[in-house]
Structure formats: structure tokens, C-alpha cells
Sequence to fold (426 residues):
Amino acid sequence: MAPLARFLPPRGVAIAVVAVTFLALLISAGLRATPGVLLVPLELNFGWGRASISFAAAIGILLYGLVGPFAAAFMQNFGIRRTMLGGLALMSASSFASLWMTQSWHYLLTWGVMGGLGSGAVAMVLGSAVVNRWFAARQGLMMGLLAASTATGALVFLPFLAWLSRYGAWQPVVIAVCVASAALLPLVALLVPERPSDAGTRRFGEAPDAPDPLVPPRTSIAAAMALPFSALRRAVRVPVFWLLFGTFFVCGLTTNGLVGTHMIAYCGDMGIAPVAAAGLLSTMGLFDLFGTTASGWLTDRYDPRKLLMVYYGLRGLSLIALPFQDWSTASLAVFAIFYGLDWIATVPPTVKLANQQFGERDAPILFGWILVGHQIGGAVAAFGAGVIREEYGSYTPAFVLAGCFGILASLAFLAPAGRKPQLSPA
Fold:
């Protein structure tokens, strides 16, 4: 039991859980965005190639997604609270250990492998699990709010981290991420009960006479590791799973993999200082905070397939247009606002479609697998854009290609929805 939760009113417990989860997702997103700030300083201080630095970022992005299904299974078996604490502790330890790196493989191990595993335990799948467990009503709005925290991570962290690295220093950036991750550990321990019943309350919006949800029995670690694969076996026969997996691949390709990792460096190529470039990303984060929260509100009211078709189409067009603008302050501001409103707006309708198709038991785990597609796309873009920049001396082909993928993802939702599948329990 979280000691301080018992002193909160029943509705206040759910609000506290959402607030702490928002902060945890914000810190995790800040860690995943940090390689974009470190790219040039590491190149200057160690002489590492941009492709090798991008490869470490790609591994971190990939593991961030691959951990998702297993993190969801661990949340079901061993608890959301314990999983959050473990992920945050690993994030703090990995960034702290990187202070002693001298070789590129040290960066790969700390920020790529360890950071990817830690942040993957505190990722979007955590938001899905918290919303399903603590909210019976307004799930779309709450998912939109939690998804927006990934953009808020950029809003809070990137300008400050870019300021810390303004003279080419990288150690202050690492220390800031380490301290932020560690500072959240006591909040999770004190304010996050495992279930509403542990705090003597019910899910937000749930009727007083609703039956208590069944608590799954705790299983072994081996059984918990097997649960994501059994859920995946049931889902691979369902076309909607592949639609969501494929389009979320494009989501990762066009957001954290490309823009999140390479936008600051791209702006540097165009003569824009790192702090100003980080401010551009922060503007995107600010507007995504509104855009994704509004997307959650819309998802509670409209067809999520139509929303996704619009989101991916607009994102693709904005990325295609970016390289051909004049890179003035005004044009970049327009891009930041337009693109920012759409940054993570795809998450609430994607989660709703997963819940509709697979039910509350399997949906968080399968959303974890869908998030794997997102992070594979992000890893491809993080590494591929670095290679394209080295080979062609420009990021323009990478941004145009990513925009074309966005258009294709939009067109994929024109296909008929089909009927809801009947999944066998095993």
C-alpha cells in the first residue's frame, strides 16, 4: 500500500495516480529525447561518427518498444507500482554509469541497452494499464493526457538540456536526467497504490454496484514472460492487429526516430543554434500537449479509424513540406505548431481500437506489441537518417521519405473495418 494514498479522498487517489504516472512518462520521454541533444556534443568530444551515435539511439528506441509487452505482463502479475519503480531505478543507474564512458560501446550499453530497458518499463503501455485499472469512464481523455506527457517531456527537458550542452558539454546533460529519474522514485512509492481497492475506492466513473474486477493470480516470472507470447498468438490472426502494428511503425518513424533524434542536428545544418532548435521541439511539445489531449476527447466521441486517417495524412504532408521551406523563424513556427498538434495524437485512437478488438485483458499487452512496431519504426528512422545524412550530406531525403510513409498510413484506414473477431482464450 502507498502510505500517503490513504490520506487522500477516493477521487483524489485516482488523480494522484494519474499525476505520478504523467511525471513518470514525462521523465521516460525526456530520457529517450536526450540522445538528440547529445548527438553533436558526443561527436565533438569523442570524435565518434554520427551513424555510430545514431545506432546507440536506435537500439534504445527499439528496446523501449520491445520491453512493452513484457512490462505489461509484469504489471499484471507483479504490479504496476513495482514495475514503475524498477524502470525508474534502471533509468537513473544507466545515465549515472554513462558519466564514465570513453568508448562508443559504453554509450551503446548505457543509453542504448540499459536506458532502453528502463524507459521501456515506463512507456506508453504503462499509461494504458493505469487507465484500464483506474478509470471506467473518460478513458480516451485520460489516455490522451498521459500520451501527451511524452511531448511534455520534450517541452520540459529539451531547452534546459540544450542550454546545459551549449558549450559542447555532455556530462551536465547526463547528470540532469539521472537526478530527475531518481527524484520520482519516492513519489511512486508513496502515492501509487496497486489497485483502487487497496485505497478503499473504485475506478473513476464506475457504478457503486458494479462487480469487483477479478484480480489475476500471481504467477512465476517464467509464466509472466510467456503471457505476451500467448496474447500475440491470438492476435496475429486478426487483421486489425497488423493494421495498428504497421501504422504505429510509421508513427515511430515520423516522430521520435526522425524528428526527436535528428531535428536539432538538422537545424544545425541549416545554421540554427542548438538552443533555438530545442525551443522548436519544445514548441511542438507544447502544442502536442493540447493536440493529444484533444485527440483523447475526440476519441471518446468519434470513429478512431477516421481520426487516425486524418492524423497520419496531415503529419506526412508536413514532413514532406519541411525541407522545402525557407527555414525562417515564421515558417519554422508554423511547422512546429502544425506538426506539434499531431505529434502523439495517434495514441488515444490506437488504444481505443485495441481495447475494442481485444478486450481489457489482452489490450494492454497487445498495445505493448503494437508499440514494438512504433519503436522499430523509430529505430529505423534514427539509424537510417544518420546514414542518409552521412552519405548524401543532407537530411532532406529522410524527411521526404518519412512523409510519404505517413501518407501511406493514412490511406490504410480507408479499408473496411470488418467485424470484431472472436478470440479463443488460449
Remarks:
- The CA atoms of residues 85 and 185 lie 6 Å apart.
- Confidence is low (pLDDT under 50) at residues 421-426.
- The first helix runs from residue 10 to 46.
